[in-house]
Design goal:
Elements lengths: L13 H12 L28 E9 L9 E10 L5 E12 L2 E16 L2 E16 L19 E15 L2 E7 L4 E5 L4 E5 L7 E10 L4 E11 L6 E10 L3 E8 L3 E9 L4 E10 L10 E10 L13
Antiparallel strand pairs: 1-2, 1-16, 2-3, 3-4, 4-5, 5-6, 6-7, 7-10, 8-9, 10-11, 11-12, 12-13, 13-14, 14-15, 15-16
Length: 313
């Protein structure tokens, strides 16, 4: 949602810069993760508390390896249900760098969880700050006496989000708008504006279902649909198999972008580790060797009478 200044960059970085700034112009800055089906805190505040225990998750994503200035993202989330399980709270901290721009965001999440016969129906809100930095001094136009790009303008941009989430033991569905405010910046004039513009809202619809095959194998189907005015609809679908309640392996397909291989290992009831590799299907495949994503998650139990059981979502 943050609109950065658009201008031609040095030849060595022109491809990735055009991609990055073009996406920002279309309000396509929302973070993208391949292993979203294991942690939706970054897009849906209603997810807070859904794992029944306090849960922490780390993600490192290196996108379009081989292209200078391509996106790199680090995300930390923590969330937990409160004592009566009707409320969930969470925290999401994300650092994303694209070319000369950097966004460091900190958001708090709150969810009201309504117990039903099959699980929970949750409504959630999030609010926080995005610290946006433009390293203009790093831009070299190869032109003498060009002072167009000078300084390191920084902005603190408020935002908020909304979400709904339904989950049971073997399925989930969610709807969310992670950013309700449109943040516009002009780094050369060191100005920013914030306001509501529904044309720039990103709508996320997610869902998943687990099907038992036998005692040792579970199959999981997942999907994420992303929509925003003026941009193509993006559909991410995945199929994954769980063996012996320990090892996930599967594949995702993201329209107009990539095919991904996904693996996650449940080291014990509380600790899990995952890795995914995206095979780029666009013209960027001629310049990039793909995308790597690593995740690490841990579920805490402070109640010795309860045993942590691995969750499917």
């Amino acid at each position: 949602m943050i609109h950065a200044f658009k201008k031609t960059i040095i030849a060595g970085n022109i491809l990735v810069m055009l991609v990055a700034f073009s996406e920002r112009a279309q309000a396509q800055l929302e973070p993208q993760f391949t292993q979203y089906m294991f942690n939706e805190m970054f897009i849906n505040p209603a997810y807070a508390g859904s794992r029944d225990f306090m849960s922490m998750n780390l993600v490192y994503r290196n996108q379009w390896v081989g292209i200078d200035g391509a996106p790199t993202t680090q995300n930390f989330t923590a969330h937990t249900p409160l004592r009566n399980e009707r409320f969930g709270v969470g925290l999401s901290v994300m650092n994303e760098e694209i070319g000369v721009t950097r966004d460091l965001s900190v958001f708090g999440n709150y969810a009201y969880r309504m117990p039903v016969s099959f699980g929970f129906v949750s409504l959630g809100l999030s609010a926080g700050i995005i610290h946006h930095t433009e390293r203009l001094n790093d831009i070299n136009t190869n032109e003498d006496n060009d002072n167009s790009f000078v300084g390191t303008p920084q902005f603190n941009l408020p935002n908020a989000g909304f979400g709904a989430y339904v989950n049971g033991d073997r399925f989930y569905a969610g709807f969310s708008i992670p950013r309700l405010l449109e943040n516009n910046i002009d780094p050369l004039k060191n100005k920013s504006t914030n306001g509501i513009n529904t044309d720039y809202w990103h709508y996320y619809i997610t869902g998943g279902y687990v099907i038992p095959v036998n005692e040792n194998v579970r199959m999981k189907a997942t999907t994420m649909i992303k929509a925003v005015s003026g941009a193509p609809l993006i559909v991410d679908i995945g199929a994954h198999a769980l063996f012996h309640e320990m090892f996930w392996i599967g594949a995702n397909y993201r329209t107009g972008d990539a095919v991904a291989a996904v693996a996650q290992f449940q080291i014990n009831n509380q600790l899990r580790m995952g890795y995914s590799y995206d095979f780029t299907t666009t013209e960027l495949k001629n310049y990039s060797s793909g995308t790597h994503e690593i995740t690490l998650g841990y579920d805490f139990s402070f109640d010795k009478k309860r045993v942590v059981t691995p969750r499917y979502f």
